[in-house]
Amino acid sequence: MLLLSIDSSAGASAALTRRGEILQQWRTEETNSHAEVLTPAVQRMLEAAGVSGTDLDGVAVGVGPGPFTGLRVGLALAHALAEAWSKPLHGICSLDSVALRATDAGVEGEFLVATDARRREVYWAHYVSDEAGSRLVKGPFVSPAAELPPLPVVGAGLQLYPEALHPAKVDQDPSGWTPDAVELGQLAAAALAGEIHGVLCQARPLYLRDSDAKVPEQMRQGAPR
Amino acid sequence: MTEPLVLGIETSCDETGIGIVRGTHLLANEVASSMDEHVRYGGVIPEIAARAHLEAFTPTLRRALETADVELEEVDAIAVTAGPGLAGALMVGLSAAKGLALAAGKPLYGVNHLVAHVAVALADQHGNSSPLPENTAALLVSGGHTEILRVGSLADDVELIGSTIDDAAGEAYDKTARLLGLGYPGGPAIDAAARTGDPQAFRFPRGLTMPKFEGTAQNPGKHRHNWSFSGLKTAVARAAEQFTSQGFAVPTADLAASFQEAVVDVLTAKAVRACQEQGLTSMLLGGGVAANSRLRELLAQRCGAAGIQLTVPPVRLCTDNGAMVAALGAHLVSAGAPPSSLDIPADSSLPVDRIVV
Ligand SMILES: [Zn+2]
């Protein structure tokens, strides 16, 4: 199970994984250069691993939620790669990657993943962790941090709203965690191997918000005053 | 060398266009428009356009390859609009183009949208390409841009002679149509309403025509070859208001016809004079407003009187499309232009003399 995975829901990242083992990985915390840096990074990774598109079993892509323009860059790239290689394309909620990291770090029971949604809000989802790993309970949603259920939190939302959110108990500080392609590749491989269920989705962006466009007064009336 | 087979991708505004050409021979020109989704807003909403590009990309690509009856592996290069245009919309096409280029191992050409409008005028479905005439001007008029260019060579010699300093002409149509309750897009709506109106009923301003802006041929002013359309909608609004405030019906057809006359008069007068003063003897028309009946009529008349040979491509090639991008890409491949790097940015204000990024 050789997968190329891509996420551009916060920073940008890409990974080549074989049955979940990392062959190559790349990431940047920059949020405004996805259109420039992501494709060359994928090219370098393929070259470094000596892998061509025909060797792959599929492409996995984070579908967000995340800032729209950057999110679309990763999705457009993933769609084009999968189409040109004639390989299956799998979508995964980007927050699931942070949930996997939490479980691997020992978080147990119910917890939330919260990331920056800008405009004084967070993107968040509710997970539960048990022997079988982490599982989505509900979400993702976009809300002000103060409206989230009172559960331990992991993810970059923590550092933005420390008064509203309290961190899950883990060894590393979870307040800077953002989605990463490595975990998306691991989740996709596990889902495709039938080990976990319900992870894969359509490779279409989870916007969670409408565009800001407002219908002008004149269009509502449909005639001059 | 046989003529290059090039796939072109256009996502600078609200049309997702994918075209395929072999040299100057158009093989496919598939366009998915998000126009319907913008109607209730009376103008293109960038976020809505960008969302629609991502949804439309793969189906449009498949249709184009099927129509042209070619496989992606056979293509010699991928061309894509790198700018100018709406940044978020450009990034969808650019990122997808990079993906295709990387996956299929093809060179990428990030090209200038405006120059692509010119390139398509020289291509057709039968491969009967006309070479670029010497001393050519291009008049590009759409909802996003309004320019006159001197085109010496599509590969390396394009110069901006004049442009709008505020609204694009098509934008002025949209805003005025909205004001008059004629709907969106404004171009066809005003064109239709104007048919029963009197173009002389109102005298609306011709922007940047005062001597202080224009100067003389020997001593040209700063805006001799530039246009301004933002004052027009205000003038139309004020005229309409005089009727409503007195309880009279607004003479929509007369206002539409007079507005259209003002736009088309100043557009064509300045374009033709610019050609005469720059020694340009042929003109290509491009952009969505090229569909406007009055613009075509008056431009043909004035070019004829000035001895300028006018070429107007079919309307579906004047509006934004992928074939124009492919046509410019094929030209660049033939001219031996070096391909673009995979790290090029989308440039929403790409200047016209940067033909390939
Ligand atoms: Zn255009």
Automatic annotation (TrEMBL), chain A:
Cellular compartments per GO CC: cytosol
CDD domains documented for this protein: ASKHA_NBD_TsaB
Residues in coiled coil: none
Domain of life: Bacteria
Recorded GO MF terms: transferase activity
Keyword Phosphoprotein: no
Keyword field: Transferase
Domain Gcp-like residues, every copy: 32-134
GO biological process: tRNA threonylcarbamoyladenosine modification
Protein name, UniProt field: tRNA (Adenosine(37)-N6)-threonylcarbamoyltransferase complex dimerization subunit type 1 TsaB
Originating organism: Nesterenkonia sphaerica
From TrEMBL, chain B:
Protein localization: Cytoplasm
Record GO cellular component, one term: cytoplasm
Coarse class of the protein's main subcellular location: cytoplasm
GO molecular function per UniProt: iron ion binding; tRNA N(6)-L-threonylcarbamoyladenine synthase activity
Keywords: Acyltransferase, Cytoplasm, Iron, Metal-binding, Transferase, tRNA processing
Domain of life of the organism encoding this protein: Bacteria
GO biological process: tRNA threonylcarbamoyladenosine modification
Catalytic activity: L-threonylcarbamoyladenylate + adenosine(37) in tRNA = N(6)-L-threonylcarbamoyladenosine(37) in tRNA + AMP + H(+)
Xref: Pfam families: TsaD
Domain Gcp-like: 26-326
Top-level EC class: transferase
Annotated binding of substrate, by residue: 140-144, 174, 187, 191, 292
EC number: 2.3.1.234
Cofactor binding annotation: Binds 1 Fe(2+) ion per subunit.
InterPro entries: ATPase_NBD (IPR043129), Gcp-like_dom (IPR000905), KAE1/TsaD (IPR017861), TsaD (IPR022450)
Residues binding Fe cation: 113, 117, 320
UniProt cofactor(s): Fe(2+)
Record family assignment: Belongs to the KAE1 / TsaD family.
PANTHER family: TRNA N6-ADENOSINE THREONYLCARBAMOYLTRANSFERASE, TRNA N6-ADENOSINE THREONYLCARBAMOYLTRANSFERASE, MITOCHONDRIAL
Function per UniProt: Required for the formation of a threonylcarbamoyl group on adenosine at position 37 (t(6)A37) in tRNAs that read codons beginning with adenine. Is involved in the transfer of the threonylcarbamoyl moiety of threonylcarbamoyl-AMP (TC-AMP) to the N6 group of A37, together with TsaE and TsaB. TsaD likely plays a direct catalytic role in this reaction.
Name recorded for this polypeptide: tRNA N6-adenosine threonylcarbamoyltransferase
UniProt lineage: Bacteria, Bacillati, Actinomycetota, Actinomycetes, Micrococcales
